[in-house]
Amino acid sequence: MFFSKYKQIVIAVLAFFTGLAGSPALAQPDVSGARDMFSNQQLASSKQIPVMIMFSAEDCAYCDILENEILRPMLISGDYGDKVLIRKFMVDDEGKIRDFDGKMIDTYDFVYRYNVFVTPTLVFVDPEGQELAERIIGVNTLELFGGRVDDAILDSLNSIRNVNLGKLELHSRPNPTNPAATASLSRERAAD
After folding, report:
1. Angle 28-75-71 (CA atoms, 0-180°, nearest 5)?
2. Distances from the Cα of 102 to the Cαs of 38, 84, 86, 98, in angstroms?
3. pTM score > 0.85 for this model?
4. How many CB atoms lie within 10 A of CB 4?
5. CA dihedral 71, 122, 104, 127 (to 10 degrees)
6. Is residue 126 part of a domain?
7. How far is C-alpha 59 from the geometric centre of its chain's CA atoms?
8. Which end of the chain has the least Cβ crowding within 10 Å, N or C?
9. Count of structural domains, the chain
10. In-domain check, residue 14
11. How far is Cα of residue 168 from the mean position of the Cα atoms in its chain?
């Protein structure tokens, strides 16, 4: 009798935790794949933000650490949605991808374009695929790594906004009473 009651309790507890573990509330977001760079280009262009591409490999333990300890928490926080588009590109996937210009290219050509020989490598690009900030190769001290990523995102945002502001200034006159209207993004404003 006692064993039967004990067994029922154990089964109920396991069923509860199994159901809870599979619930969407506890699911962590995955870093989206980067097989369609044209769609990423359109989204980044509409938001005027850079694309951060993590070049990863299937059996790369450091890639898993970077994704789980840095990139997923960035996605979960919600603080980066208007600052950077985070994507993962698997270097060992074969086949073709859709490039920034909409044309199909080989995976190898995409990796070769960015001279990626080590994974993980973080590359920060504008919506046309041009590098904006110093790339980050490998993973070192995690406590400092997040700051390096944030600095690269900020540099990329400044580059994009300066380019976009430059284009806008061709069609409108600068406002001398409000010089901040054409100033680049500061670190304080980037944190907003």
Report:
1. 90
2. 5, 21, 19, 6
3. no
4. 8
5. 80
6. yes
7. 20
8. N
9. 1
10. no
11. 27
Cα–Cα distance, 122 to 176 (Å, whole number): 39
Read off the tokens for 150.
């944030």
Position 73 pLDDT exceeds 60: yes
- Give the type of residue at 35: R
What is the spatial order of strands in the sheet that 85-90 belongs to? Answer: 32-33, 85-90, 51-56, 121-125, 136-137
Residue carrying structure tokens 């333990």: 61
Which structural domain, as residue segments, surrounds residue 61?
26-190
Number of Cβ within a 10 Å radius of residue 106: 12
CATH classification of the domain holding 94: 3.40.30.10
Question: pLDDT digits over 95-136, tens only?
Answer: 999 999 999 999 999 999 999 999 999 999 999 999 999 999
Radius of gyration of the chain measured on its C-alpha atoms: 22
As separate numbers, helices (DSSP H) first and strands (DSSP E) second, the chain gives 7, 7
Inside any domain, residue 181: yes
Helix (H, G, I), strand (E, B) or coil at 134: coil
Q: In the structure, what pLDDT confidence band is assigned to residue 163 with cuts at 50, 70 and 90?
A: low
Residue of 86, 87, 191 whose CA lies nearest to 147:
191
